[in-house]
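pasting for ref
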Amino acid sequence: MKAIVRDSDGTLSLRFKILGCRFCEKTGYTDTSRNRYALTQTNLKIQDDLHNGLFDYMNHFPHSQNVSIINSLQSRFLSPGWRGLPTFESYYANNYRGTHRVISDEVFRFIVACIGNVKVDEVVGYHLLKLVDVLRNVLDLSQDELGHVISMIVDVLDSAAICYVFPRPFRFSQRHFDRDDYPLSHRDVLRIAHHLPIKYREYFLLKYYLGISTKELLALEWSMYDLHTSSFRLKEKDVYVEPYARRLLFHQMKKTGNFKYVLSETNGTRRSLDLIWVHKICWPKACAKAGYSELGVNVLKKASVAYLFEAGLSVNSICCQTGLHWRPAVHRILTQHIINHRL
């Protein structure tokens, strides 16, 4: 990484790395040999202070917006359980510097009632869905009005995430979707599962609750499960098990807990499935019996993204657990779930 770079406006910027994070400070200096020499000396001083543990961001860049980020990183490192972040209402009133959208006082009172006292880093999918439900049922807001409100809230949370260094929320996109393109809700999946053969019910429900691939699901072992973190520790990632899903997992443990694999045959060997029949015939038939069009098994992946978001996982964690690493697809699914008229 080059320490001194020229910006598009012809001025120089200084780049460096602190606490594992990369920072860039615009200097406003024009690109001349004299200014480059001065910045080189400044960079050497910064590197020397970093090496000796004496670097103070405030002394070098007293008016930088990055000072609050450094302070937040320091506080979180020294106090892992630190919860000194402002509430949503406090941050919006005192720290938010973005565009203040026009929202009626009545709507804002409902926003404050639902998430106003929640810390900005603790507002999760459950809070947003609860707010949408209140606004839709009490104030009878339209889809466009709901989208306007949620977009404002996500902008505030995104600003707070950048300022206080915690996982950024999803990007809400105000678009019109087909009425049949929304992800399945928890109620929808349970209704479909009721029409599945009992032998395969746990397989499809665990696939929905965990969001992992079929190969990973069939390879799950009881020895991988960590009771303290309520997650399966795979080689590449940790798979979080949401509280409601733990009931199903405990029920499964009573059947296969003495065996090696979570999904086992009656003799204790790893479950083997005819995936073509299970995915192409069994699942579509159950969907049709439940009153849905014959859906492919891929809809479970979309439903898992929405379910894990509602359970409190960040976008980063959802991408890692489900294997959907293309962020626009995840943002689209979460946008659809938030404004889902069927919820």
